[in-house]
Amino acid sequence: MKPITIIFDLDHTLIDSSHRQEFFTNGALNLSHWRENSVKGKIFADKLILPMLDFYKKMHRAKKVFGELYDFQVIACTARVMSEYDFQYLKNNDLHFDTILSRPVDCTDKDHLLKEWLLRDYASSRGYSFQKFANLATMIDDNLSVLQHLARLGFSTVDALKFNKGKL
Question: At what angle do helices 144-152 and 111-125 cross, to 10 degrees?
Fold first, then answer.
């Protein structure tokens, strides 16, 4: 059975969490500020207004049709450190994934390296070589460094920022 995996990032892909972000003058995300603002009230104020959400819903419907013919997975791969409130937010808003891959609490790796590591581990746990998995998976993310890095590794990629702005 061929694995087909659609991988969604969360922030700026499916979820508008911009109210919790702060950036340094060089454009890098202030991770300490993000973590300080990852509290229940602010997480629950995140918005589901991005167009990619409709595509996510279509992939879930497709999974119901093709799930028995293929190893069809819809997963999340996020640089967030997921808390109980993040999981509750997803559940409350009917955002369901076969697997959620997320940043370990003590990890400060750059997002593109983190996501490669998470996806390598996921492929291995499913019994697939990383190259086979990459060749049959699509990563949807807003981070250009993640998209470029994973494309070099064989993934199909979709730029969520362009999609959400209607440029695809």
Answer: 50
For 112, residues 6+ apart whose C-beta sits below 8 A from its C-beta are 143, 145, 146, 148, 149, 150
3-state secondary structure of 133: helix
The pLDDT value recorded for residue 72 is 82
- Output DSSP code: residue 72: E
pTM: 0.92
Residue 49: what pLDDT?
Answer: 93
Q: How many residues belong to the chain?
A: 168
What pLDDT is recorded for position 168? 47
Q: Which residue has the tokens 């087909």?
A: 4
Q: What is the DSSP letter of 159?
A: E
Residue 29: its pLDDT value, please?
Answer: 79
Flag residues of the chain having pLDDT under 50.
168
Assigned superfamily of 3-17+50-164: HAD superfamily/HAD-like (3.40.50.1000)
Query: Which neighbouring-strand residues pair with 100?
Result: 76
Query: What's the one-letter identity of residue 97?
Result: F
Q: Which residues have a Cβ under 8 Å from the Cβ of 24 and sit 6 or more positions away?
A: 30
